[in-house]
Amino acid sequence: MELADLLKFNSDGLIPTITVDFYNNQVLMLAYSNRESIQKTLDTGYAHYYSRSRQKLWMKGETSGHTQKIKQILFDCDEDTLLYKVEQKGAACHTNHRSCFYREFYRGEIREIEPVIEDFDGVIYKPEDSDDIFDKVYHLLLKRKQELPENSYTAKLFKSGIDKIAKKIGEESAEVIIALKNSSESEIIYESADLIFHLLVALAEKGIPPDAIRKELQRRFGISGELEKKTRK
Asked: pTM of this prediction?
């Protein structure tokens, strides 16, 4: 069964498509899709839409680099609206705002509630005052990456690049395996902390917040492991 066969298109062969951030559910934009753009989205794993003004198919981020990697596709109860949950790279709006909905009408006035994005490389990070230790460590790692202070082990890792970071993850994984073989609880905890720390370094290097991992685990929760592997893109 094809997805398009389940949907109800309007008289122009279009269906409104709402796009939201997979990791924090922020509404990013509203566009329109047709059968061709939906199939292109499914085939490539990246959001494609139909432009009513230009009357042509277009891929989000094709020229700007602000792509939308599809994480989940939903449709409403009337089957006449699509919802794309995406991993947004940079800004979704052509104004360089994260979301097209960056203005608020408040007490008779219009005000902007979202700043223009200057860095388009990663997922927007959440506030640094989180009580979660993973978030705290991650935020500190982002600061080390930006400031690159001298005599900082983490800064040296960032300067060395992803190959060095990946090598450290391999080394720390081996240490965890040895700890598991030794059956020492304290050793397992210590080496696991080392491994998780270096994984967070890798995530910071790629601009992926810990919450992205939480969301992916949440998506998988309650799904058979075998089924999840079969449906993975």
From this structure: 0.55
